[in-house]
């Protein structure tokens, strides 16, 4: 009910919309978990038809809950993209079973393939590369595969804080994309500052990695919530943006909104149309309602979901 009150107070059709932001918002995606999706009565009432919805698979979530959520969203007309975290998949047979369940019960043909956040793998896999090497996604006819991008590095891959490992992994995935029938793209960890992301995206292009980049954006949330997530997820360099905000008492009590970072990215994309920055992916850390409400008031409701590669 709170979401609909929010939308009545700030009707996106009556607010002026920055055309640069609206263009970047076109085809935005959003992430849910089974337990958060349960709190939404009808996704069709809040998201544009065909929106790509990622389903995060947190360690301990039964595959039955994941498939049920995928089936519900697919039946409502959304493009469903479940996570396949390597480190919680026991073996080749388990991966094949998950793929078969998603396809058989929900018609899924998209996946985010990633290592996953657990420290110790439960079985044979520890990286997204190993999952892709099985060939099971291509064999099953998946039309789209996304992989993780880490603009600020990933200490699971590079414990020294460097970028050698993550860079080599993206180079491998770029080469894999040339052989795969699936369309591939990179979706990044959420960021709070545009400059490091832009520099990273430009470096990818200079290195010949042409995969489209979908930029992770944290939706509106309390500052304390975002700092907690940022620390746990290893977001480093741009964390200082939140820490600086936390020192301002007048901003500490207000929820964070991604308006500034999105505006910066939109202006950059407008000035550099050949940039590999292709769109936005929302992490609703403060709740689905807040992220969808913010997206709606900034042009997301008029988005054409199929336009983003």
From TrEMBL:
Q: Which UniProt keywords apply?
A: Oxidoreductase
Q: Which InterPro entries match?
A: FAD-linked_oxidoreductase-like (IPR029041)
Name of the protein? Methylenetetrahydrofolate reductase
Give a GO molecular function annotation for the protein. oxidoreductase activity
